[in-house]
Amino acid sequence: MNSKITILGCGYLGSALAKVCLGKGWQVAALTRNPNTASKLRSMGVSKVIESQIQNDDWHHHLDANQDFVVNCVGASSSDPEGYITSYVEGQDSVMKWLEQGKVGSYIFTSSISVYPQSGKRLVDETASCLGVSEKGGLLLAAEQKCFPPVPSITRSFVLRLAGLYGPGRHLLIDKIKSGTIIKGNEDRILNLIHRDDAVDAILTCLSANSTNIGRIYNISDGNHPTRGQIVTWLAEKLDLPSPGFEGNESETAPNRKISNNRILDELFWSPSYSNYQMGYKSILESL
After folding, report:
1. pTM above threshold 0.90
2. Where exactly are the structural domains of the chain?
3. Which of 48, 144, 165, 272 is the most exposed place for a label (fewest CB within 10 A)?
4. Distance between CA atoms of 4 and 26, rounded to whole angstroms?
5. What residues have CB less than 8 Å from 142, skipping those under 6 apart?
6. How far apart are CA 273 and CA 55, in angstroms?
7. Tens of pLDDT along 118-169?
8. How many helices (H) and strands (E) are present in the chain, helices listed first?
9. Which of 27, 26, 25, 30 lies closest to 13, judged by CA?
10. 58, 66, 57, 75: which is closest to 8 by C-alpha?
11. What are phi and psi of 12, to 5 degrees?
12. What interhelical angle do 196-207 and 12-23 show, nearest 10?
């Protein structure tokens, strides 16, 4: 039988996931707050597309809560703390209420490595302390915690802490170099990245994990730890443009750490196809 998956917050990452799942012959449903995205999803062949805000309850009766898989990859409705509260904390509350109506095999919530406040270019894994995290990182942690208390309707839950997401149509550094816009922050700060297609593959790897894995937190990063300066210099050379430079105004205590992806590599044998920024950006540059 074909698997059933519902993708909540089906935007940049979720749409790419939906495309792969449709290619597998799965039955795909989606929730998005963006009318343009909704139209694209329908044109892709998504069987049911609901336009609503995830924190509302009005979508609950439109989507079947009996699913093999549910993936919540919603993005913040705005970059301020209120946007995080609305989309992540209240959104997760709404999702959990909806899930009480049915039964789900695996649930995934895509979080962020912003929950790690470490500095000094230390290597950080899933066991690292999150004490001292920013307000927005703390809100993500609060949303994560709602996934794991015993929820009778969910067989298992995964939290995927994504590194900086880039890929086709999302390449902020390239745009800044082309426009000559000075880049905020320090050039020697580590930039942990994950290509969109690798993030999709990591999600599918978790969904297909052996039933002995009852759910985990996994860091999703390419495992490469370049500085922003190294990436911008390389991109500028490829574009045959000068580097726009950096403001260099970040404090020494700002998050600056190397994210380890060893847990998912070791436990689920996942590995990124784009294991460094050169590979990932090469495919983007060729498409521009």
Report:
1. yes
2. 4-166+195-223+258-273
3. 48
4. 6
5. 88, 89
6. 34
7. 999 999 999 999 999 999 999 999 999 999 877 889 999 999 999 999 999 9
8. 10, 11
9. 30
10. 75
11. -60, -55
12. 60
SS3 for 129-193 is: CCCCCCHHHHHHHHHHHCCCCCCCCEEEEEEEEECEEEECCECHHHHHHHHCCCECCCCCCECCE
**Nearest-angstrom CA–CA distance, 248 and 257:** 17
- What's the rounded Cα separation, in Å, for the pair 68 and 56? 23
Phi first, then psi, for residue 258 (nearest 5°) are -100, 120
Dihedral of the alpha carbons of 170, 175, 176, 177, in degrees to the nearest 10:
130
Copy the structure tokens of residue 38. Answer: 């909704």
Which residue bears the tokens 């694209």? 40
Which pLDDT tens digit goes with each residue over 62-112? 999 999 999 999 999 999 999 999 999 999 999 999 999 999 999 999 999
- 113 pLDDT tier (thresholds 50, 70, 90): very high
Q: What is the CATH number of domain 4-166+195-223+258-273?
A: 3.40.50.720
d(CA 234, CA 192): 16
